[in-house]
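ugh ok fine here u go
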Amino acid sequence: MSTLGPDPSTPDPDSQAPGHPDRPARPGAAGPVAVVVVTWNSARVLPEFLASLPEGMAGLDWRLVVADNDSADDTVDLLRALAPEATVVQTGRNAGYAAGVNAALDAAAGWEGGFSAALVCNPDVRMRRGCAGLLVAALGAPLGGGGRVGISVPLLREEDGTLHYSLRRESRVTRALGEAVIGNRRAGRFPLWSELVTDPAAYRRATVADWATGALMALSPECLDACGAWDESFFLYSEETEYCLRAGDRGFATRLEPAAEAVHLGGDSQVSPRLWTLLTLNRVRLYGRRHGPAATTAFRAAVLLRETSRAALGRPASRAAARALASPTALRATPGP
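structure:
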């Protein structure tokens, strides 16, 4: 039976410490599915999210664990009132998304019996009935070449039912150039020219991608154990990219399960200059960690071309991102609130 689980009576003293990529998440081999949610001033979307969980988690034994990043609104009070049996971890600061995920996973690892899989989701996601069961069932499926599914993601839709293009290819200089010159939506049909996957056929089948939007993803215990904690240095944006790519390096693929559907209400990064700038800078930061200086310089230039061209069309978010990319110190600054 699906339940919201109680807090551990004696939490591990390490369980609420910020995570590190080399520290295992210590999932259990059995137990319920841990529904991992990170909140920050989420009171507006939280009640509907909590109300939707029983439908989305239908058929699974599950427990909710929420890491709150020092919300200034009624988020924690709402959690206590609407989900009194949930495990709530208060980080005490606006620690970032990855740090919240790590804190929640550590708390769930302290449950008696551990947990069988993790479902990491934003509070602005609304799962269709049985969505989580399909995602969890897909974990561990073998793939050609000796890999297996370590991360499964659903078909995401906008509020109006429009398909959300959630699948991505790993960053390359040619892809950044293609997006700069012809736009990511048009270039998305061609693997050489865009990170965004826009081929409709890819969303009608079980498609393996380099990474996917992190609004909702199921993670296998084997993948969690192999990859360890999420990288907290990104604060917000690119943390799911880094995790999926790291999982792929270890033989755990990210795969779309098209029968599993959810609605994502998000999209602030598209309109906020501050968030778009953070997203853009973190793309370049992550690229630099996986490639040499010369390739990173070329990638940064290609991304700058894209943002400059869109700034010329009057997009304020791109104007802010272009200024940051042109700054010699922006990439060295530590992302934060």
